[in-house]
Amino acid sequence: MAGLALDGVNPDVGLLYDINGLARSAPPWFDRVMGFVGEFGIMLALVLVALWCWWRVRRSGTPEDSISAVAALVWAPLAAGIALLINVPIRGLVERPRPFLDHQGLEVLVAGKTDFSFVSDHSTLAMAIGVGVFVARRGFGFAAIGLALAEGFCRVYMGVHYPTDVIGGFALGTAVVLLLAPLAQALLTPLVSAVARSAGAGRLVRSRRAAAPERGHEMLDIPEPDVRPGRNGLAA
């Protein structure tokens, strides 16, 4: 696998030069911004999207919807961590050097990358969180997956990964989230449900503002007493 990217006519290498070539023609300040965004910025944005999703699912839908969505959101970072652990032996098995070690003329925006290239940790982590958020709430999930795709582009733009490193990371992150989701939901849903019933921590799953209208709705369902006059003029 390591040798697949050594041939200059390889499409993987050609796409690498095309995308990284944008960095060579961009202003230095833009490359600095892209380096920060690709290393830290998009990952921070993904965390904020996940928190925003959590904030919204607590306040909308039924209590069962909130419990299921929060369980999915808890699973997202756990799945990302599992995917990164799986990537450790994959990297050791493939042993693919970073692209700038085998190819000249690349614009490398982040220094100090000495580990192997396949699979991209950032792409794996980003897509795992993105797909996990998608499982919890599709609207937020589309935004999160879009950020994950942008992360993959940035890793190639920065000259630290081949496109296939990114694609492999996307596949690994997605596979871990979706394949283990049924088991994760079966284990996490009862736990989140127990937290929801807790007096102190219940608001982590369901906000009081969301629960209040439901109590009011239940009050409206209480039957009114029958006050029709009877034969003797008193209420029946």
From TrEMBL:
Chief site of localization: membrane
Gene Ontology terms, MF aspect: hydrolase activity
Domain of life: Bacteria
Stored InterPro entries: PAP2/HPO, PAP2/HPO_sf
Compartments, record wording: Cell membrane
SUPFAM superfamilies in alphabetical order: Acid phosphatase/Vanadium-dependent haloperoxidase
Region feature Disordered, mapped onto this chain: 208-236
Phosphatidic acid phosphatase type 2/haloperoxidase domain residues: 70-181
GO cellular component: plasma membrane
Membrane-protein topology: Multi-pass membrane protein
TM region(s), chain numbering: 33-55, 67-90, 125-150, 162-181
Key words of the record: Cell membrane, Hydrolase, Membrane, Transmembrane, Transmembrane helix
Feature: compositional bias, Basic and acidic residues: 211-229
PANTHER family the record matches: DECAPRENYLPHOSPHORYL-5-PHOSPHORIBOSE PHOSPHATASE RV3807C-RELATED (PTHR14969:SF62), SPHINGOSINE-1-PHOSPHATE PHOSPHOHYDROLASE (PTHR14969)
Protein name: Phosphatase PAP2 family protein
